[in-house]
Amino acid sequence: MVMVTTVQLLRWLPVCTVLVTIQEWHRTLALRLTNMNVPEVVDYRDTVTLSCSYDLGVHQLNSVKWYKGNQEFYRYAPMLTPQVTVYPVDGIAIATDRPTICNQYLCSIRLTGLGRRSSGEYRCEISGDAPEFKLANGTRNMTVEALPVEDPTISGLSSSYLPHEHIAANCTSDRSSLPVRLLWFINGRTVPMEYLQQQQETTLESDAFQLRYRTLEMRVPIERLVQRELDNAIHIKCVATVDLVPAASREAAAVIALRSHRSSLFGFGGGHHSNAAASATTTTTVVGRSNVLLLLLVLLSAQPMLLTVVVMWVGFTVYSLPDSWPGRSL
């Protein structure tokens, strides 16, 4: 077994330092690609940007070439005239609404008019000048799809409900070539599967894409989902999610009301009925007293003498009360 001593390590230290220095020096001299940006999934209605940046080291830039597959479609050559050359490739259209940006540090181009044939592998290739013509390149894949651009549509809701009713509604997603997952939420909570119907899907062909519309129906008993702190308002939301492209998720929301008092909704029925009975008794008493007073007034108006007697009797009664009686001073 070979034992490495500290002295031997110290002898090799200068050599290692020189090797690392040479490697770092070579790296700074070499032409290399430092970054490449190509979106993975895009909507066919978008204008997308492809870019790559590079470090030339001690070299001069000879050219930057963009390929789709093995076909070159764009070249930037600062030493030639013209500096930019575009080659026809199926599925590729360079946006001309503003100039591309290519220089000694980066090259950025924009594609428009996307379609199915625009999907594929994209390569950025950097070339140094003579006599070595050093190369550096990178590749990325881009897929063109039809993504949802509109919020889902909620249909079938009423503006208000009674506690014993069901909320029945449909949520329909915008068209998409990728699968869309629909989710219902009530007051921030996911609606359980037991209240959802089987999801329906409709397909159609458009712009060479197989598009899907999906509809999910829910039927929810209000008394099972409403919480006590609601104040008779129910917040409903439908979310359409594209799992492969989270940024393409869309949502729609609605607020509905309950037409009954909160106590009857959350199991306080006994107190509610007692209050109702007390209210009915009070109403009956007030109505009965009103009828008696009305009859007395009719009799008094028909008999002026009787009215005089009654007034005198009331005055004598009040005068005869003791001084301590409440209201005697009135």
Order of helices and strands: HEEEEEEEEEEEEEEEEEHEEHHH
Rounded average pLDDT: 78
Spatial shape: elongated
**Could you tell me the strand content as a percent range?**
35-45%
Commentary on this structure:
With 330 residues, the protein is an alpha+beta fold. The longest helix has 34 residues. It is 25% helix and 36% strand. It is elongated, with a radius of gyration of 42 Å. The strands form four sheets. The protein has a six-stranded mixed beta sheet, with no helix packed on it. It has a five-stranded mixed beta sheet with strand order 12-19-18-14-15, with no helix packed on it. It is built from five helices and 19 strands.
SSE topology:
Blueprint (H helix, E strand, L loop, with lengths): L5 H24 L2 E6 L3 E3 L4 E8 L5 E8 L2 E6 L7 E3 L14 E2 L3 E6 L8 E9 L6 E11 L7 E3 L4 E2 L4 E7 L8 E6 L2 E2 L9 E7 L2 E13 H4 L7 E9 L8 E9 L3 H4 L3 H34 L1 H17 L10
Parallel strand pairs: 2-10, 12-19
Antiparallel strand pairs: 1-3, 3-8, 4-5, 4-9, 5-6, 7-8, 9-10, 11-13, 13-17, 14-15, 14-18, 16-17, 18-19
Spell out the key features of this protein.
330 residues; alpha+beta; 6-stranded mixed sheet; 5-stranded mixed sheet; 5 helices; 25% helix; elongated
Task: Summarize it.
By secondary structure, this protein is α+β, with helices and mostly antiparallel strands.
